[in-house]
Specification:
Elements: H1 3-18, E1 31-37, H2 56-63, E2 66-68, E3 71-72, H3 78-87, E4 106-107, H4 115-120, E5 125-129, E6 149-152, E7 181-185, E8 188-193, H5 202-216, E9 222-227, H6 249-270, E10 277-283, H7 310-313, E11 317-320, E12 329-331, E13 335-336, H8 340-348, H9 363-366, E14 377-382, E15 386-392, E16 395-398, E17 401-405, E18 420-424, E19 428-431, H10 447-464, E20 481-482
Parallel strand pairs: 1-9, 1-10, 2-12, 3-13, 5-6, 5-9
Antiparallel strand pairs: 2-11, 4-20, 6-7, 7-8, 10-11, 14-15, 15-16, 16-19, 17-18
Helix pairs in contact: 5-6
Length: 487
């Protein structure tokens, strides 16, 4: 064989190899940034209708990407919502309900796979800066569940021996037994917050840590998880934004969160990473409405946090994925926080967890495929394990259950107002296309739809249980993590 022909063949082979999926020169894995806000309602972002303050960075994010109008948190409360987000499971499948407290001895089970653990199989650096709330004991903390770095608080910022306006609680109160609010670095307490003023630095602290994380990991793929403590009460805001909004302190807090998003975006741009980053913004549940001017807005949806009505679980969701997500678009299809893990698996090639999950990839929606229908149903679980409703397409069946309503006079300036017990006696049916505020029960007009959705509920009860009908567990539920006598 002539030397020139041999050289040509070698060059052809090298070009072919350089374009192969396993080549070092192949397309880089995308970075993933997930910003997760606490108690921020459907109506608390400018592009979702917020008034009294502006969110220019979030509005820009939406203008450069896509926002969803039918996106749901995994449950309408802190710990359960976060468990669903990070594992791709309905929280009750993995033993989570409600919110964990500083005296809780349970947390995320080591057998569950988190987004961080999944992405580490692809060489991702993983960092969390913010509120964890999946167990405060060491075996449950982030470093034991896939994260390389952690700075933040282990549970909600009102879980301390002060009330919501910063005064010591009575000795008879459960809160009086809680420690001063810890800020953790890794597994250790970095410092403790002892006053309302100490919480003013949290948003800035998380932001600075996130920017530093990006700067240090610019040369490898990373997963940055920012579960902000705000706007959970008691509200804290830095001097940069105090008094800046027309709405008051809650508006100030939202403006600082928007600033934080902008700072992260700047860091990505400075490091030439913005074009290869999936940037997601969403929230853990709806607003805590009985706190009045210290609470967010459900955007006209019914009720709020800790309820299975739309205001409790339908939340903002914005995604920016340059050259993949069409700019300035709106998606009206169903999606849920439990869908993030399988979606990240698809776009990174990471393996899905071995144990069953409930999420489904919604990447086709992110790419603007208007024909795609990856998620058909949403299950509305709350309480210890109560199935309160199901949604399929534009229809929502609300099942008999009790809840604490916000339909009473709210509090003000950090003081919570009363809530009143309410009960759904018989199944109710709502058309989400015509009646997103869930004001008109139309079950008498569409009995066939109620029957169709009841089949979804019965299937869920078999697999996941439903205490509303006496089923504590289902065939597919797993145990929450527990501390053993040896630990």
């Amino acid at each position: 064989m002539k030397k020139s022909v041999l050289v040509a063949l070698v060059l052809l082979l090298s070009i072919s190899c350089s374009n192969s999926p396993n080549s070092e020169n192949s397309e880089k894995l995308p970075n993933v940034v997930l910003v997760f806000i606490d108690d921020m309602g459907y109506g608390d972002v400018g592009c979702y209708g917020a008034t009294g303050y502006t969110t220019p960075n979030l509005d820009k994010l939406a203008a450069q990407g896509m926002r969803f109008t039918n996106f749901y948190s995994a449950q309408p409360v802190c710990s359960a919502s976060r468990a669903g987000l990070l594992t791709g499971c309905y929280p009750n499948r993995i033993g989570f309900s409600g919110a964990l407290f500083p005296d809780s001895e349970v947390g995320i089970n080591p057998t569950e796979t988190t987004i961080a653990e999944m992405l580490k199989t692809k060489g991702y650096a993983t960092g969390i800066f913010g509120k964890w709330h999946l167990g405060h004991l060491e075996k449950f903390l982030p470093l034991q569940h896939g994260f390389d770095e952690y700075v933040g608080i282990p549970y909600s910022n009102d879980m301390w021996p002060l009330n919501d306006v910063g005064e010591p609680v009575p000795k008879t109160s459960r809160r009086s037994t809680y420690p001063e609010l810890p800020i953790l670095e890794g597994n250790e307490v970095m410092e403790r917050i002892t006053s309302l003023e100490g919480q003013d630095k949290l948003t800035t602290l998380y932001t600075e840590k996130a920017v530093d994380f990006i700067n240090r990991h610019a040369n490898q793929p990373f997963f940055l998880y920012m579960p902000h403590s705000m706007g959970h009460i008691p509200l804290g805001v830095s001097d940069k934004f105090r008094g800046k909004s027309e709405q008051g302190k809650y508006g100030d807090v939202m403006m600082e969160i928007d600033w934080s998003v902008g700072e992260v975006e700047k860091a990505l741009e400075t490091n030439n990473l913005a074009d290869n980053t999936v940037f997601i913004f969403t929230t853990d549940n709806g607003p805590w409405l009985n706190f009045g001017n210290h609470a967010g807005s459900s955007g006209g949806l019914r009720e709020g946090k800790t309820t299975s009505w739309e205001g409790g679980q339908r939340v903002p969701f914005i995604i920016k994925w340059p050259e993949k997500t069409p700019e300035g678009t709106i998606c009206n299809k169903l999606a849920c926080a439990i869908d993030l893990l399988p979606s990240f698996a698809e776009i990174t090639g990471a393996p899905l967890p071995e144990q069953k999950i409930d999420g489904t990839s919604v990447v086709e929606l992110w790419k603007g495929n208007t024909e795609a229908e990856p998620r058909e149903t949403i299950l509305f679980y709350y309480g210890k394990n109560n199935l309160n409703g199901v949604r399929k397409g534009n229809w929502k069946l609300v099942l008999p259950h009790t809840w604490m309503s916000y339909h009473t006079k709210p509090g003000k300036d950090g003081h919570g107002g009363p809530r009143i017990p309410m009960k759904v006696e018989q199944p109710e049916l709502y058309n989400m296309m015509r009646d997103p505020g869930e004001q008109y029960n139309v079950i008498e007009f569409y009995p066939e739809k109620a029957t169709e959705l009841m089949k979804v509920a019965e299937s869920a009860r078999t697999e996941l249980g439903d205490l509303n009908v006496g089923l504590e567990k289902g065939s597919g539920t797993r145990e929450i993590g527990k501390v053993t006598n040896m630990e």
